[in-house]
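cron nightly-structures :: item 1 of 1
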Amino acid sequence: MLIVHHLNNSRSQRILWLLEELGVPYEIKKYQRTPEQRAPPELLAISPLGKSPVITDGDVTLAESGAIVEYVITKYGNGKGVPPESGYLDNLYFSHYAEGSLMPVIVQKFIFDLMPKRSPFLIRPFVNMIFGQLDKQLVQPEMEKHLTMIEAHLQKSKSIFFAGGQEPTSADYQMAFPLEAIVADAPQVAGPKIKEFVRAIHEREAYKAALSKGGEYSYAKL
């Protein structure tokens, strides 16, 4: 049986959602973040980088959420999770855009917010000023461009989903995590269509089932 090596508050939550949508039997092996919010060393025994998500499926061990999503849909989808022909390119683009372009900006924002908090008390105001300016000049303009583009795409989509079909595809599974993080942590910058997308996936029964099985996840609540 397919095993999901699941880290709390991580991208692996979307793998659970995918499996629930497709009705694929699976087991969960749970891992908890360290006090420093890093993956525990036990994950190194599963994958050389010690990251999550990772799945094991018989002789297959596979990391990287995008690769896992594609593998699961191809092997277990039975026609589900496939975009309509009209949405093929949108699905292809957003499946790769999520981690290739959007997540680096979000991670940069996270680091710039974290550094002042982790700096020594005496220099914290100085560090806060520096990273505040870096955030204002580098991160915020980029984030605004990304969110404007995403909002515009969802406005013209034929459905709530990125490929315009009647069910989620790889683009939606990949885009879920970054958009959940934005809506949860900075709802004021998210447009109405982005919020509608996040709300719609949270209302799906498969998502609720995945959330109940996965445990702690800061970006959604039952």
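cron nightly-structures :: done
The chain has a mean pLDDT of 91.
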